[in-house]
Amino acid sequence: MKILLMGNPNVGKSVLFSRLTGVHVISSNYPGTTVGFTRGFLKIKGKKAELVDVPGSYTLDPSSEAEKVASEMVETGDVIINVVNATNLERNLYLTLQLLERDIPMVVALNMWDDTRHRGIEIDLNRLEAILGVPVIPTAAIAGQGIRELVDALPRARRVATPPGSRDERWIRVGQIIDQVQQISHKHHRWFERLEDASVKPLSGTFIAALVLALSFLVIRYLGEAIIGYGMDPLFRNLWLPVLDRLSAFLGGAGIFHDILIGKKIDGTIDFIQSFGLLSSGLYVPFAMVLPYIISFYFVLGILEDTGYLPRLAVLMDTAMHRIGLHGFAIIPTLLGLGCNVPAILATRILESKRERFIAATLVAIAIPCASLQAMIIGLVGGKGWGYLAVVYGTLFLTWVLLGAVLNRFLKGLSPELLIEIPPYRLPPWHLLFHKLRIRVWGFLLEAVPVVLGAVLIVNLLYLTDIFTFLADLVAPVVTGILGLPREAVTALVIGFLRKDVAMGMLALLNLSGRELVVGSVVLAMSFPCVATFVVLLRELGMSDLIKSTLIMLLSSVAVGGILNAILFQAGIK
Amino acid sequence: MTMAGSLKSLADMKNEESGTIVEIQGGEAVSSRLAAIGVIPGKKIIKTSSVSSRGPVTIKIDRALLALGYGMAGKILVKTDGSAP
ipTM, 2 decimals? Predict the structure, then answer.
């Protein structure tokens, strides 16, 4: 049996899904968190049934990618659980009526039930059940209430043969139902609601946005540094280094195996960054340099997502974002990209047009460095001085703006206008927040660590052959001539295709000057996405757009890197 | 005394002004996109803010807060409630 969880965006389907199946999915407080669909299983009276978390949609007439998925999925279900936001019944019943017309057995989960009372909303459950003709179960997914009752009600799911209506007829029907089942007593503005208004007004909104972003940056930075300084780095130096020293002595201090496992000794000692062996840099880079920032970034992002602040930022940014051919909502995939480009490019599905998705995905792949790369850039470029770091970020930001403006100018078509529902603010449910953080950190460890180790191994093996020399000869004119980098930097740029953090680690081996390191970081960030991003780009954009996007990447990275090098050189910066 | 309401587009409404949607202009593509999210003739709305001179407009409708682009707001015709004394 296949059960579909369907409903408007941001009504809590994903939280309910986790509750029903025990499968952990990412949920947030903004419409469009789920763009693909997730499957899980639950047991009903001892029998196993499949449950699908369908992306939220307002109607079954597809107007965005998420709605297209939803409307195609309906037909495949044996039972539908229609998740309805109890605090906003009139906006949710339209889809309910449309689903009833499909003649598939259905149950309604009246979610966020615990929120109705303090909002002054009263709903006559029996009446609603009688009118709709299907079981209506009040639930509070975040608090875990009503889940058992919902599962028990599934066998009672009923089909109601409603004749299909027109759009206007359905809305009239919604109005009639609301009049019969819902009563609202006016409640005074809570201070929360005042804050909700203030954060989308131009003056107060800009002030709040600046405050939120500055605070986010500070928390990410200091939390990341604290995890490194008080946790990972001492752990590696005090516990792991002695182990490696013994192993090194055991292996005789040199030789092929020694170099692959432990790496080359720098001034007679093992250096966690420069030795570049599997057990030294191969573990230190992902666990002690990148992981701390993954934790701090996703902790802060989780708070931003769950409070409901992001859609407000989208509204504020809308006018500015239109200049680069996107509407304000594109700020969400962009922020996700600062964590990892893969989910960011998937999230561009919330944008309506193909043109917009192409611009958003290309800009993310080119100008938005992921957390892994940023951790290494902060660690290595930051070591040369904060000014250098500012140049790297400033250049990437400027590229994002200018390239967006250029794409907007030359790509045919207009960008559609913003149209979103802004959810109310909510205090982040902490158990969900840490849950989400755990999913994302595990995701990083499972996907990134093996690739990092693989990349380090490949680097070591290739150094034994002449392939790098061959590659270096091939592109040396560009790399040394235009970018002003030593020819050995070519190898790092090539390895960037596997993992950007490892590539950045390789740049550190070259004893680069500040200018070279800045240009190298920028080119590494822009030139070519890592292989995982590349695969998602191919899937989301298709071959011809991927080729277009890749050409733009290569051209812009060489151009920006070259110009940056020339400017820094002229300014006399070494 | 109450001033009679007047007919204007959502884009031209003042902040905090309320009214009832009368018509959505500009063809089926716009009206179906708006209808999906619950913006249909007959609904009562309050305009809560506009971000900049041609920036998105936010409205309260059925106790939900919606943000829509300026161009779209220009196509929504509203009969305003008029101001109480």
Answer: 0.91
Nearest CA in chain A to B33: A63
The pLDDT value recorded for residue A316 is: 93
pTM, two decimals, is 0.90
Predicted confidence (pLDDT) per residue in A89-147, tens digit: 999 999 999 999 998 999 999 999 998 988 889 999 999 999 999 999 999 999 999 99
Q: Does A323 touch chain B (CB under 8 A)?
A: no
CATH of segment(s) A2-184? 3.40.50.300
Contact A127, A75 (CB under 8 A): no
Closest CA to A203 of B55, B48, B52: B52
Are the C-beta atoms of A272 and A288 separated by less than 8 Å? Answer: yes
User: Would you call B35 and A171 a contact, using CB atoms and an 8 Å cutoff?
Assistant: yes
Nearest one of A138, A117, A128 to A90, comparing CA atoms? A128
B13 reaches A (C-beta below 8 A): no
Whether A177 has its CB under 8 Å from any CB of chain B: the answer is: no
The answer to whether domain B7-80 has CATH 2.30.30.90 is: yes
Q: What stretch of H or E contains A407? A: helix A386-410
Q: Which residue of B has its CA nearest to A98?
A: B36
pLDDT tens-digit series, residues A520-546 = 999 999 987 888 898 899 988 999 999
Per-domain residue ranges of chain A: 2-184, 202-570
Mode of pairing for the β-strands spanning B64-68 and B57-61:
antiparallel
Q: What is the pLDDT of residues A104-120, one digit of tens each?
A: 999 999 999 998 988 88
Domain borders along chain B are 7-80
- Alpha helices per DSSP H over A232-353: 233-234, 241-250, 256-261, 281-284, 291-307, 310-322, 331-337, 341-347
